[in-house]
TrEMBL record, chain A:
One of its GO terms (molecular function) is hydrolase activity, acting on carbon-nitrogen (but not peptide) bonds. Pfam families: Amidohydro_3 (PF07969). Gene3D superfamilies: Metal-dependent hydrolases, Urease, subunit C, domain 1. It comes from Methyloceanibacter methanicus. This is Formylmethanofuran dehydrogenase subunit A. It comes from the Bacteria.
Length: 544, 357
């Protein structure tokens, strides 16, 4: 069936397009304007904005850690809505089904789960398969597991075997890419470390955090995996940690790297309270390291629960609100679940909010500074439209800013920034750039051949309203949302890489798990039958 | 088979408030049960949910401090075994927790076992073991140990026992990684709180954690599946507009006794584990039974023979060694028997057709 979206303002920054025109969809793809054929279906979208479906590069939507968060905080949706904040799709609970529905209503069609635990990949995939409409992919965590650390043991580095191990892990967990969370820090926590810096050594193994990240960059580059290592660096959330972020950016220039939720590293320690905005310095370093991309991890005020494989950081930040926390000391990274309420009246929270916005607005190249809230850590994903509003409307920003504590306003440069993101720039940070960074070349844009994931919005001054409910959303060519409501519950696909490896690694890994865990690695190998839909998985090719 | 499933669909389509109990099934079976319960406005519960519900309630109130099985066996220097159930549930538990070869672990203490409130049992040869028992009840022993850990006073009349508790408290403070192992089905909620408080005290300076024994019958797998599907664990009702979890109200046994539930879907289809049916099962309540074992059901009940997960078909179930859901290949695949998921999904389709007609 040929579908025409007629006369909308088409915003496709990947092809420098921002003009009124038509978009045609057929057989799940965008197609050229057909000659001599009448469309079977015409949607008159004149006066509307037409963009590719949005892509979330970093959102914790599935897997052991998220479900542990659900177990600790089933009341999250109710608490999050207590102060008139937008709520999750279901006011009663935050299950998988509700996640897909709400993402689709906002015009999102692809979401990346950034923290799959290798041994729990089956649960992550079963959860992802129960999220309707959106396409998904998972990033698998390595870097605090004893197998990796043993390969990087000082004086006995086995980088070829590491490359095979990374490839095997990506294949075995059906992951799109690699995640590294506080490299070596979780292992150090197992030896009772309470802080862990870039150049500190992992107890017993000798390798440093820097050494782990560099080795992973090399392995991913050698394997030709399109998405660079997705790194959550050391010292998250600590005053003065902009030094760590800048040092990491300087240390990792040999190969591409993606630094996650960089707002949480944008902290200086100037001023009376020892906490200040490090955003200008951070952005200078990001603007300079052209091989680095980042996502922001914007904070919004309200109740949430933080979920992280950075167990060391979560442990030191366990002063939870409400007062309950989970520290899960598990194989590899482990997890910390810490409920948190970002308060407008808090000096620190207000500054975090402002730092995130500064980072977006100081970015020279929006292609390298991607949108995220690190859902649910900075804010629930349902808050995205409010953040778009803040980025696109300086008066709205000032309205919020003026209500912040005096002390926070005094040390923030936000009020002096007059930049307003254009629709094209928004489309870059929420569509085109995530697709490029992830290696998902068939989306994030509207050229013929692209997957027919399209979102249509009513242009209005109130961007919160505009992006809360898409007029129309097409997923793979099928109309799934009309007037902000899901009209057809379809099921998406899951993308992964399969770079290939020397088969010897399988025996080595089997022997390791049998010896130390009494476990057979086949137990946690993800097969296509993890979902009951036959075409669930699609492989993204690697360069080598 | 088709007529059996049609009878099951007819029975359930008429039900006002069905309860899906037992749920000794794999994750796919649980997902199908959840979907059907949602469709019918029923309840999901698991035959071993008493301990899980208790642990869940404590966690919701104050959090939790779990360690994975792998971390405990590789890195714990002191393991505190509470109660009889852990060893009764897995006679080889201690051999697994004290393996000959392990990953690098913190500290240089020799590994040690402390047994609290349990009958004398086998312990691995050569392992230093302290037994804290006597005639004192388990809650009091744990409370005293908790006090000793925090260097607070406690009263135990047996002087030798009191001394042992004191020295164990000291050993735990000096441990590099102390882990308390228990079965939440065996110990009461206040005891769980005491253990958690002790761990939270210890971690201020050193490392400590808990290892809660997984419920039988893939309890954790089913519970996790319920949690990710609807945001809430088992003992959840889908009768209202939004799902509602209530650990007292939505227990199978109570729902059958009180007459609130008017139909039972009983699922018992896991290799190597038998779900204990509720006392009122199959007596005066319309039941659909999915079982891999012979069942004594009522004359009007619908019984569907299904394959046993893990034996007859590959199955995703909770596996303690990886502290998560893994997939196990069938020991002797028998494709002639349908899975729980197959049967429930077909019943769901038949109910849809009936409703559409």
């Amino acid at each position: 069936m040929l579908t025409q979206l007629k006369g909308g303002r088409v915003i496709d920054p990947a092809h420098n397009r921002d003009a009124v025109g038509d978009v045609y969809l057929e057989n799940g793809r965008i197609v050229d304007a057909p000659e001599g054929r009448e469309p079977d279906e015409v949607h008159n979208v004149s006066g509307k904005i037409v963009m590719a479906g949005a892509i979330d590069v970093h959102s914790h939507i599935a897997g052991t850690n998220v479900t542990l968060g659900r177990q600790l905080m089933p009341e999250l949706p109710l608490m999050a809505s207590a102060e008139g904040q937008p709520i999750l799709p279901s006011s009663a609970a935050w299950g998988s089904y509700a996640t897909g529905i709400r993402y689709a209503e906002m015009g999102y069609t692809t979401v990346i789960e950034p923290a799959m635990i290798p041994t729990h990949a089956i649960q992550a995939h079963k959860e992802m398969a129960s999220i309707p409409i959106i396409d998904v992919a998972g990033l698998v965590i390595l870097g605090n597991d004893d197998y990796t650390l043993n390969l990087l043991r000082t004086g006995n580095v086995k980088s070829d075997e590491l490359k095979d191990y990374v490839a095997w892990t990506l294949m075995h967990s059906k992951a799109l890419g690699l995640k590294v969370i506080n490299a070596g820090g979780s292992e150090a926590f197992k030896f009772n470390a309470r802080t862990f810096d870039l150049d500190e050594q992992v107890p017993e193994y000798g390798v440093t955090s820097r050494g782990i990240v560099e080795a992973m960059q090399q392995a991913i580059a050698d394997l030709g995996v399109p998405h660079p290592p997705h790194v959550h660096t050391n010292n998250l959330g600590i005053a003065g940690n902009v030094d760590t972020a800048v040092a990491t950016l300087e240390a990792t220039q040999a190969h591409p790297i993606h630094l996650a939720h960089i707002q949480f590293y944008g902290y200086g320690k100037e001023g009376d309270k020892g906490f200040s905005s490090g955003a200008p310095r951070l952005m200078e370093a990001i603007n300079k390291n052209k091989k680095a991309t980042v996502d922001v991890g914007q904070v919004m005020f309200g109740q949430t629960v933080t979920i992280s494989g950075d167990v060391l950081r979560q442990f030191t930040a366990r002063a939870a609100n409400p007062k309950k926390w989970v520290i899960n000391q598990a194989d590899g990274n482990g997890t910390g679940i810490v409920p948190y309420n970002y308060k407008k009246k808090s000096f620190v929270n207000a500054l975090q909010w402002a730092i995130g916005l500064e980072i977006f607005l100081l970015a020279e190249d929006p292609w390298r500074v991607l949108f995220s809230t690190d859902h649910p850590n900075g804010a629930l994903f349902v808050r995205y439209p409010e953040i778009f509003h803040l980025l696109m409307d300086k008066n709205e920003r000032l309205r919020w800013f003026d209500r912040l504590p005096e002390a926070s306003r005094q040390v923030s440069g936000l009020a002096g920034i007059s930049r307003e993101l254009t629709l094209s720039e928004l489309a870059i940070i929420t569509r085109a750039a995530p697709a490029k960074v992830l290696g998902l070349t068939d989306r994030g844009h509207l050229a013929p051949g692209a997957i027919a994931d399209v979102a249509v919005y009513t242009d209005q001054k109130n961007k919160t309203k505009m992006f809360s409910a898409a007029d129309l959303v097409f997923k793979s060519g099928k109309l799934v949302v009309r007037n902000g409501n899901v009209v057809d519950v379809s099921w998406g696909r899951c993308y992964h890489v399969d770079p290939g490896f020397d088969r010897q690694i399988e025996n080595r890994v089997r022997s390791f798990y049998e010896t130390y865990y009494g476990a057979d690695p086949s137990w946690f190998g993800v097969t296509p039958t993890v979902s009951d839909r036959p075409d669930r998985f699609a492989t993204i090719p690697c360069a080598s | 088979m088709d007529s059996t499933l049609q009878r099951a669909a007819d029975l359930l389509a008429q039900a006002r408030f069905p309860v899906f109990g037992g749920l000794f099934t794999d994750v796919n079976g649980a997902a199908a049960a959840l979907a059907l319960a949602q469709k019918l406005g029923g309840v999901v519960d698991h035959a071993a949910s008493e301990g899980m519900s208790r642990a869940a309630r404590v966690m919701r109130e104050t959090g939790s401090t779990p360690a994975s099985f792998g971390e405990v066996r590789n890195r714990a220097d002191t393991i505190v075994l509470i109660g009889d159930s852990p060893r009764a549930r897995d006679p080889e538990l201690l051999e697994k927790l004290f393996p000959a070869k392990a990953l690098p672990r913190p500290g240089d203490n020799a590994r040690e076992l402390v047994v609290v409130g349990a009958k004398k049992g086998k312990t691995p040869a050569g392992l230093r073991t302290t037994e804290i028992d006597g005639k004192t009840a388990l809650p009091e022993l744990v409370a005293s140990l908790g006090a000793a850990i925090r260097e607070l006073p406690f009263e135990i009349r047996d002087a030798a026992l009191a001394k042992k508790i004191l020295s164990t408290g000291k050993r735990l403070r000096e441990s590099a990684f102390a882990v308390f192992v228990y079965d939440p089905a065996e110990i009461e909620e206040p005891v769980l709180h005491t253990v958690l408080e002790a761990v939270r005290h210890l971690v201020k300076t050193t490392r400590a954690a808990t290892l809660s024994l997984a419920a039988p019958g893939n309890g954790e797998g089913v519970n996790l599946c319920s949690t990710w599907t609807c945001g809430l664990p088992v003992r959840t009702s889908f009768a209202g507009e939004t799902p509602e979890n209530n650990m007292w109200a939505f227990e199978t046994e109570r729902l059958l006794k009180s007459g609130e539930a008017d139909a039972l879907v009983w699922i018992d289809a896991l290799d190597g584990a038998d779900a204990a049916p509720p006392t009122r099962a199959f007596r005066g309540i319309s039941s659909v039974v999915l079982s891999s074992k012979p069942v004594k059901a009522g004359r009007d009940d619908v019984v569907v023979e299904v394959g046993a997960a893990v034996a007859d078909h590959d199955a995703a179930v909770y596996l303690p060694p990886i502290a998560g859901i893994g997939e196990v290949k069938a020991t002797s695949a028998d494709a002639s028997k349908p899975t729980v998921a197959d049967v429930l999904n077909k019943i769901g389709t038949l109910i849809d057709a009936k409703r559409a007609a």
